[in-house]
């Protein structure tokens, strides 16, 4: 798992996943240490989101193991999934503040304000979530991950709906996270320009 001098990591070995009674992928292994990132790519339906769900612990592997060794003192993982799970009726900052409190974060309002500034949504802090555009909603969901301060970011198609400037900003924010000793696993069809990122390309669906 994590080598000498490194703090935290994840190692998957011989993983297989089953969805709806069907094996989606089998015999998949990878390891990632603090400061590293893995980009998961491949055709639709090959199992990218499924792999993230396995890493998040939301789905049990059909075979194989995942050893996750987060460093102490910070939340282990933040997960950017398809749905943002933000209350549409609440102003954006409040909707994010709700999760920051649920996650037991210290200084939740300050964290949310900083995360909104990171994703260039500070001006919309008082606007109800339901009025946000698709791309703004995606950025809001990413702000939730940033505010969470977790070690491992699991990002499922994070650039979906983002314009070029927002995609470039996302790359910078992921890089900042890695430089601060975090890790990221990103399922995406798009290239991401990150020096510490390796790519794992799934083949054709089983
Ligand atoms: N809840 C579910 N029940 C049954 N089968 C599912 C379920 N979720 C996903 N699958 C199936 O598992 C396979 C992998 O799905 P997954 O969403 O992981 O693919 P993906 O690589 O992320 O695809 P995409 O590029 O379209 O996002 C697909 O064949 C899909 O139909």
From TrEMBL:
Xref: PROSITE patterns: ABC_TRANSPORTER_2 (PS50893)
NCBIfam families linked to this entry: ccmA
Alphabetical list of InterPro entries matching this protein: AAA+_ATPase, ABC_transporter-like_ATP-bd, ABC_transptr_haem_export_CcmA, P-loop_NTPase
Keyword Nucleotide-binding: yes
Alphabetized GO MF terms: ATP binding
Ribosomal protein found in the keyword field: no
UniProt entry keywords in alphabetical sequence: ATP-binding, Cytochrome c-type biogenesis, Membrane, Nucleotide-binding, Translocase, Transport
Stretches assigned to the ABC transporter domain: 10-200
Gene that produces this protein: ccmA
Protein name: Heme ABC exporter ATP-binding protein CcmA
């Amino acid at each position: 798992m994590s080598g000498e001098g490194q703090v935290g990591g994840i190692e998957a070995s011989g993983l297989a996943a089953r969805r709806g009674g069907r094996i989606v992928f089998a015999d998949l292994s990878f390891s990632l240490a603090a400061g590293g990132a893995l980009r998961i790519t491949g055709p639709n339906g090959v199992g990218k989101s499924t792999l993230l769900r396995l890493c998040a612990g939301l789905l049990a592997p059909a075979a194989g193991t995942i050893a996750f060794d987060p460093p102490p003192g910070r939340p282990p993982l933040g997960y950017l999934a398809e749905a943002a799970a933000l209350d549409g009726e609440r102003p954006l900052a409040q909707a994010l503040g709700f999760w920051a409190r649920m996650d037991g974060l210290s200084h939740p309002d300050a964290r949310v304000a900083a995360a909104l500034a990171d994703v260039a949504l500070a001006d919309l802090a008082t606007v109800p979530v339901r009025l946000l555009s698709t791309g703004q909603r995606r950025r809001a969901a990413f702000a939730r991950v940033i505010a969470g301060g977790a070690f491992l970011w699991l990002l499922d198609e994070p650039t979906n709906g983002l314009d070029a400037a927002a995609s470039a900003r996302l790359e910078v924010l992921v890089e900042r996270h890695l430089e601060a000793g975090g890790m990221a696993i990103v399922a995406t069809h798009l290239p991401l320009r990150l020096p510490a990122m390796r790519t794992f390309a799934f083949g054709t669906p089983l």
